[in-house]
Write a structure and sequence with these properties.
This protein is of the alpha+beta class. The protein contains 18 helices and 21 strands. The longest helix has 20 residues.
């Protein structure tokens, strides 16, 4: 609980940081270390140093201290006793003059690793897996099947060389991931933003960051890392080229894999990245800022970091491969010669990408103002819904009027569920399943801010509570109406107001909606990153509003 409370301070401190430069050591981590000392009932620095020798629960503190100071293979001895630091024997360290030094070093270890004890990873070796093409994420039951699907697509569809064998290292927590997966010099806060990494024929995965997600959901992550394995294989372990290309190629491979499996079209993935870059164009510094790993990691920690790094790199690699082909990309990976592989210099390509990159469209017209529709009982909409490897038909019908928390609402039946929309704004306030509330919100999910007008923006923030697992989460989005668009769906062609929903913290595009005043509801919608991490698309097939 204390860990979660201290994490809330991160957003406060993040707002104080500049958008350039190396990231600072998080102050909340120092506060956390001091709290740990208090929780262990340590009354003084002297007592802390004395207890290091005999408290079983603290032995890992000493081990980490030895390793950080001396290295895992160089724990020295003097007079038959291990050193607590490179300058002091244990007896010297226990003297009053030097206890403060030992205490402060140990405090840094506690701050770095927190309550998590580093443990060795679980190793999974994969060699020559059988061809596997799961039609849905649910068919992927374990990491072996996920890697089999990735290798199948990369080898058979993309024509990339197979890396064999592959060793997947699964780490219990961030402390283990940093200590055993990234080297003893790496501390947890150095890899706090990493879910996985790769080198040579190894993939390292931080299970703590996956938060219990299925391997089907985690497949794009593994595909990205496998692209790095291919990179290593093509260069005999000596990586060449820029960081932006390596990471962008990883994103390109991941997008192609889930496209080949039929889980999410490549066009949808690319469209999302381009819209995010267009929206945050003023924050995107360009490929020159993503040349090496240090600059990449620094920028990744800044506001909208994912869009400014992975999003830009993906768009850049897509454009390169689209113009010159995958063969040229593979040649660049092997040689590191950009101009020789692609036929133009990096400077020329960066200039071309900057001048032709995605932009926020200016409204085609500024005089539209769409007012809230009048809903009536009996209105009905039928949609075709596309999920990973699955298509189905959804029927939505207004069945009655009711009250939720003294708030007048329309009740819309959707298959075996009911959705409650406020009469005032048509915002979603709750859902019901099997006659029980399944989700509740403290404020409506405001899809609209009536009247809808070109370039209109509003904040959409609410707390959602899921009844089944009693979990709560805060949704904080910026809603934008960029334009009116002509949309063609099975029900016909409509002039619709486009509404985009961006996560305020990450800057990622969470959803897109196309509202038609003729249909009095959405004629098309795309929700990105829903429960299984993939896009859910809905298109209007027919409607009845008489």
């Amino acid at each position: 609980m204390a860990h979660q409370e201290l994490l809330k301070l991160s957003e406060v401190f993040n707002r104080m940081y500049f958008t350039v430069g190396r990231p600072s050591v998080a102050p909340e981590k120092i506060l956390k270390s001091l709290l740990l000392i208090a929780l262990y009932s340590v009354r003084s620095e002297r007592q802390f140093c004395e207890q290091l020798d005999y408290k079983p629960g603290w032995l890992w503190f000493k081990r980490a201290l030895y390793v950080i100071m001396l290295g895992p293979n160089n724990v020295q001895k003097r007079h038959g006793r291990k050193l607590i630091c490179p300058f002091l024997t244990k007896s010297q360290a226990n003297s009053g003059a030097n206890k403060r030094y030992v205490f402060l070093i140990t405090l840094l270890v506690v701050a770095a690793f927190g309550c998590d004890v580093p443990e060795r990873p679980r190793l999974i070796a994969i060699s020559k897996p059988p061809a596997f093409r799961p039609s849905t994420p649910n068919q992927v039951q374990n990491v072996e099947q996920a890697m089999a699907a990735i290798i199948t697509v990369c080898r058979d569809d993309l024509g990339l060389p197979a890396v064999d064998p592959i060793f997947v290292h699964l780490y219990k927590n961030t402390a283990s991931f940093s200590f055993y997966g990234s080297g003893w010099r790496t501390l947890p806060f150095d890899v706090a933003s990493l879910l996985a990494s790769a080198n040579e024929n190894k993939i390292h995965v931080n299970l703590e960051k996956m938060r219990g997600e299925s391997w089907g959901t985690g497949l794009p992550l593994l595909a990205h890392e496998y692209a790095h394995n291919v990179h290593y294989a093509l260069t005999d372990g000596r990586l060449r080229g820029t960081t932006w290309f390596a990471e962008g190629f990883g994103e390109w491979v991941a997008a192609r894999v889930i496209d080949s499996l039929g889980w999410q079209s490549y066009g949808v993935t690319l469209h999302r990245a381009r819209r995010e870059l267009a929206r945050h164009r003023d924050l995107v510094l360009g490929l020159s800022w993503l040349q090496d790993k240090r600059d990449w990691e620094s920028l990744l920690q800044k506001p909208k970091g994912y869009v400014r790094t992975y999003g830009l790199a993906f768009a850049a690699v897509d454009r390169l491969i689209g113009k010159k082909g995958l063969t040229s990309a593979i040649e660049y990976i092997k040689s590191g010669d950009f101009e020789g592989s692609f036929g133009e210099s990096q400077v020329a390509y960066k200039t071309d990408l900057g001048s032709s990159g995605p932009r926020v469209e200016q409204p085609q017209r500024s005089d539209f103002a769409i007012r809230k529709p009048e809903w009536k009982i009996g209105y009905q909409w039928i949609y075709q819904e596309r999920l990973p490897g699955l298509k189905k038909t959804l029927r939505k019908q207004i069945i009655k009027e009711d009250f939720i928390h003294s708030m007048p609402v329309f009740v819309v039946k959707v298959d075996n569920e009911e959705e409650f929309y406020t009469k005032e704004t048509l915002g979603l306030i709750a859902t019901k399943k099997n006659d029980k509330l399944s989700t509740q919100r403290d404020k409506p999910n405001e899809f609209f801010a009536w009247p809808l007008e070109a370039a209109k923006e509003w904040r959409n923030t609410y707390t959602i509570k899921v009844s089944e697992n009693k979990e709560t989460g805060v949704i904080d989005r910026l809603m934008v109406v960029p334009n009116m668009e002509e949309v063609t769906v099975p029900a016909g062609t409509f002039q619709a107001a486009k509404i985009e929903a961006y996560d305020n913290k990450s800057g990622r595009l969470d959803a897109e909606y196309w509202y038609s005043p003729i249909a009095k509801w959405f004629v098309r919608s795309i929700n990105y990153g829903v429960e299984d991490g993939f896009a859910r698309e809905q298109e209007l097939v027919s409607f009845k509003i008489e």
